[in-house]
């Protein structure tokens, strides 16, 4: 003879699968990385005891001010990120939850990802050198550029590398510095033809820039709206699409002439 379940018993039976699913969601790893503002480095100076930009084969200017490339610091590819981590980061302005594939190549080991990021950095450095020398119309000269930046991978420092090379070789073209003595920060990939590309993680990079003293931030134009999210007070955004445009904007800002673009 079948017995009839009481209402509390029915609710308990029905709730059991939901509780199990919730427990799985809470403790199961999710395909995300948690990121926060990372280090910045002045490409005109030294980083960890090594000169970032070393140029031979041409006179190099003494520069003032800083050009700081910016980074984000993300949880490693093998870190388990759970629902609690996602919820905690959601309510914080100094952290962001990003799809893991937007931070790291998917399906690779940690060692393979590190190798990939180093390869991207080397390619970015080569492109930055070609872009800078091409902009200055000095690509046919016997100028050698060595770029050294420890513990940083990926292509997002390309724009700042190019600007650093331009500043060291030519400044503003009229004896002054591109920075005008300011702390200028930024981010963006660079192609050999001088095209600036988007990078991601911009709101965290603006926080890193402001933390390390920047008052101006160069951002790929396509990421203006992202850059305005949680923008630190006192940090001026300048959108750029090309190396030439970035140089022109900095010169206009330095000399107080011309229109400086804004987001």
From TrEMBL:
Keyword tags: Signal
Record's protein name: PDZ domain-containing protein
UniProt domain Lon proteolytic: residue ranges: 153-243
Natural source organism: Streptomyces griseoloalbus
Extent of the signal sequence: 1-28
GO BP, one annotated term: proteolysis
Stretches assigned to coiled coil: none
InterPro entries reported in the protein's UniProt record: Lon_proteolytic, Ribosomal_Su5_D2-typ_SF, Ribsml_uS5_D2-typ_fold_subgr
Keyword Nucleus: no
A Pfam family reported for this protein in Swiss-Prot or TrEMBL: Lon_C
GO molecular function: ATP-dependent peptidase activity; serine-type endopeptidase activity
């Amino acid at each position: 003879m079948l017995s009839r379940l009481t209402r509390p018993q029915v609710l308990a039976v029905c709730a059991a699968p939901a509780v199990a699913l919730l427990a799985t969601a809470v403790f199961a790893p999710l395909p995300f990385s948690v990121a926060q503002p990372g280090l910045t480095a002045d490409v005109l100076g030294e980083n960890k005891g090594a000169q970032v930009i070393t140029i031979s084969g041409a006179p190099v200017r003494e520069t003032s001010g800083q050009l700081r490339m910016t980074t984000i610091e993300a949880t490693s590819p093998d870190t388990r990120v759970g629902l609690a981590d996602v919820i905690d980061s959601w309510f914080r302005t100094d952290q962001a939850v990003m799809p893991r594939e937007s931070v790291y190549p998917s399906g690779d080991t940690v060692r393979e990802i590190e190798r990939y990021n180093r390869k991207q950095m080397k390619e970015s450095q080569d492109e930055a050198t070609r872009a800078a020398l091409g902009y200055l119309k000095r690509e046919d000269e016997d100028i050698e550029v060595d770029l050294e930046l420890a513990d940083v991978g990926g292509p997002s420092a390309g724009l700042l590398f190019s600007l650093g090379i331009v500043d060291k070789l030519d400044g503003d073209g009229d004896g002054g510095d591109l920075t005008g003595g300011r702390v200028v920060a930024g981010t963006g990939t660079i192609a050999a033809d001088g095209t600036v590309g988007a990078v991601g993680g911009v709101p965290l990079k603006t926080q890193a820039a402001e933390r390390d003293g920047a008052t101006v931030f160069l951002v790929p134009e396509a990421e203006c709206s992202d850059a305005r999210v949680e923008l630190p007070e006192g940090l001026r955004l300048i959108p750029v699409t090309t190396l030439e445009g970035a140089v022109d904007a900095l010169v206009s800002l330095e000399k107080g002439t011309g229109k400086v673009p804004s987001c």
